[in-house]
TrEMBL record:
Domain Hemerythrin-like residue range list: 10-124
The family this protein is said to belong to: Belongs to the hemerythrin family.
Stored PANTHER family: BACTERIOHEMERYTHRIN
Protein name: Hemerythrin
Upper classification of the organism: Bacteria, Bacillati, Bacillota, Bacilli, Bacillales
InterPro entries attached to this UniProt entry: Haemerythrin_Fe_BS (IPR016131), Hemerythrin (IPR050669), Hemerythrin-like (IPR012312), Hemerythrin-like_sf (IPR035938), Hemerythrin_metal-bd (IPR012827)
Source domain of life: Bacteria
Coiled-coil parts of chain: none
GO MF assignments: metal ion binding
Keyword Nucleotide-binding among UniProt keywords: no
Keywords tagged on the record: Iron, Metal-binding
Gene3D superfamilies linked: Hemerythrin-like
Amino acid sequence: MDWKDSYDIGVEKIDCQHRQLLVKLNDFFEACTNQQGKDKIEETLKFLKDYTVEHFGSEEQLMKDIDFPELTEHQKTHAEFVQTVLDLEESIKTKGVSVLSTIKLNRTLTDWLINHIHKCDKLIGDCIAAKGNKAV
């Protein structure tokens, strides 16, 4: 997947973190294309666990700083994503890596990029723009 300017929310720190996620996602996609997804899945899940702590923390603090009206709902979607990652990790620990687990991670990451970042996170940028960029 290629980064699209429409994914930018207008906050460099957040946009940079989103681009970092896309790079990791593309690494995983490439591994899957080369039948190496099983080898790459645990590394990708570890990255996601670390990434979500840092990124969601940054993003949620920004939302608090700008009095983002949908903060609570946004935090809920973050928590659901973290739980999905943890559930997938637990499944791999108990059942091992499978084609199904690589497909599930692929779908989860693609959905997150397209639906969450492109739609939900974009609202943060819109909120900042509506406030005249004074909040950041």
